[in-house]
Amino acid sequence: MKGNARTSEYYNGNGGLISLSGIQLSLQDTIILQGVDLRMEKGEIYGMLGPNGAGKSTTISIIAALRSPDRGSASVLGIDPASRPMEVRRRIGVLAENAGFYDWMTGREYLRWFASLYGGDIQGKDANKLLTRVGLDGDSRAPIGGYSRGMKQRLGLARALVNDPELLILDEPTSGLDPEGRRDIHDLLLDLNRNHNIGILLSTHLLDDVERLCGRVGIIHRGRTVLEGVTAALCLGETGTESYRLHVREPSPGSDGPLPNGVSVMKSGDGLFRVEVVKGVPVDSIWRILMACGWNILEIQREERSLEEIYLAAVRKGERNEPSHQYHH
Predict the structure, then answer these.
(1) pLDDT, tens digit, for every residue of 106-149?
(2) Would you list the DSSP string of 263-317?
(3) Does pLDDT of 328 surpass 50?
(4) pLDDT digits (tens, 9 = 90+) for 8-27
(5) 10-234 domain in CATH 3.40.50.300?
(6) Which CATH number fits domain 240-303: 3.40.50.2000, 1.10.287.990, 3.40.190.10, 3.30.70.100?
């Protein structure tokens, strides 16, 4: 099938691959989405996190031009997907969580059949190349019914690449795979992104997938975005506080004394303390105050937060119905 020339107006500028703002959607009088925001740039792997039922798959259906929102604005590849759905669908590839296959076909037969749905055709040798690209044997005559779960996931990726997409949307691509199979899919996605210039939107509840793959992350809970930002920045504590690990020579006579505003301390071991500092509070002055109070500080180390801590904090905040989201661009 002939590759996409990628000469759209979007690629002549600096617009985002995906831009969602204030997306709301109700189905049969049930509110599904009530404020989803998402900004994904060209060249990114973006992780869309959230518990089951949070609204991730429904958000994907809007991005893929399968549903139109009740309110809010959406742009995919510089296009309003509700007004030009077929153009969006021609230029994206989607792997659903439960991708169905015809078990009696071979992988090559299946790809040729799927390409025909786009009004095109791929020759047998091109289908073989695509299968090889995702780590399957292009010459195999084995029916799909005999494939393992990992092989079917690879075939699903090959299917999503049939139309040479500019944007790849994956819904739980490593669900049900063993650690080796997950790592293989990770390596494949990194190759597609880095060496083939394909933007990837990854919807998952598996934090390990996001930590290894995604430069940016958005967390959806109960149909709204509760946090979005650069993964590395979030892990360094740019969500409102910064965390430090202090090694203090014992005894420390002032360790139980008054603390500056915006600072909290928790002892985590013999001579070890974890210090949380509200963002914006000058940390140098904090160390001077603590030492003046009798702290004999031997070492100060800034700590990264785990993505799990960030995720759980964002979900809890959403459950308390606090302000809908924070942005960390």
Answers:
(1) 999 999 888 888 766 777 778 888 898 888 887 788 999 999 88
(2) EEEEEEETTEEEEEEETTS-HHHHHHHHHHTT--EEEEEEEPPPHHHHHHHHHHH
(3) no
(4) 333 333 458 999 999 999 98
(5) yes
(6) 3.30.70.100
